[in-house]
Amino acid sequence: PSDINATYVFTFPTLTVSISILGSRGSLWAYPALLDHTETREWITDVIKARASETRSVVREIPRLTWDYKFLFKTVRELNNASSRAKASTHSKIGLPIWSNATQVVLIEASTYTIEFDTTTHELQLLDTVVIWSSYEVYELVIVESFTDTSITLQFPVSNTFVRAYIMKVSFGFVPDGITFKEDSNHTASASLSLVSTNNYVEELWPTE
Predict the structure, then answer these.
(1) Using CA atoms, how far apart are residues 169 and 28, in angstroms rounded to an integer?
(2) Is residue 164 helix, strand or coil?
(3) Torsions phi, psi of 205, nearest 5?
(4) What residues have CB less than 8 Å from 60, skipping those under 6 apart?
(5) What is the rounded distance in angstroms from the CA atom of residue 138 to the CA atom of residue 160?
(6) Shortest CA distance to 93 belongs to which of 187, 16, 8, 1?
(7) 96 FRET partner, CA 20 to 30 A, in 12, 19, 143, 193?
(8) Residue 96 reports pLDDT greater than 90
(9) Which tops the pLDDT comparison, 88 or 170?
(10) Alpha-carbon separation of residue 39 from 20, 56, 69, 89, 94 (angstroms)
(11) Radius of gyration, alpha carbons of the chain
């Protein structure tokens, strides 16, 4: 399954230990995206007719969120890596870094639990997945335990040291139409995808317009 919510119970002669496992199964689409993108949030309402006006009842309280991103590949190796990962991700949940909100952090040291940066544009929630990204081959996924406007605290410490890495939220979801690759007349390879997010968004983060 794409989502994991399980409990293992170990029974010993004098002790019983329970271990809970909660998370999402999927691969990270770790390639840097172009800044030109589209973010779409969709609600559903039913129109209730009235004599002088109309009212609407909410059918979908949490909006459906879709991210449309495009990618350019600088090397043949990067393109081949992306092509292989796209095939492996067919009909599976993938994680998409939200590049439009990426923030560069000068230094993130191994074993740290707290990362300081401006979080106000990242729409963070507790237990969100965040990626520390240095390249499509060098990155680390971490879980947000708590956050303020200026920092996040992690569930587990960072495993590696990163210098001038980007940090951003990861949106998990499915790509119903697949990942499309193309090559132009200048032999520049690109890809595009439309990810329907399965992340839950709290009411305070809904758009107001």
Answers:
(1) 12
(2) strand
(3) -100, 0
(4) 42, 43, 44, 45
(5) 10
(6) 1
(7) 19
(8) yes
(9) 170
(10) 34, 24, 9, 22, 17
(11) 20
Q: Which residue has the higher pLDDT, 24 or 189?
A: 189
How far apart are alpha carbons 96 and 175 in whole angstroms?
A: 10
Q: 């969709």: which residue's tokens? A: 42
The alpha helices in 62-136, defined as continuous H runs, are 76-88
| CA separation, residue 67 to residues 13, 22, 23, 134 (Å) | 52, 25, 21, 22
Do 97 and 28 form a contact (C-beta atoms < 8 A)? Answer: yes
CA distance 108 to 115: 7
How does pLDDT run across 100-149, given as a tens digit for each residue?
A: 899 999 999 999 999 999 999 888 989 899 999 999 999 999 999 999 99
How long a stretch of residues is the chain?
209
Pairing between β-strand 103-108 and β-strand 162-174 as defined by DSSP bridges: antiparallel
- The amino acid at residue 115 is I
Tens digit of each residue's pLDDT (9 = 90 or more) over 37-77:
999 988 777 777 766 666 766 666 777 889 999 999 999 99
Q: Which two tokens stand for residue 135?
A: 């390249």
| Residues near 11 by beta carbon (within 8 Å), at least 6 away in sequence | none
pLDDT at 203 over 50: no
Which pTM value belongs to this model?
0.79
Whether pLDDT at 208 is above 50: no
Task: Check if the beta carbon of residue 70 is closer than 8 Å to that of residue 36.
Answer: yes
Q: For residue 71, what pLDDT is reported?
A: 96
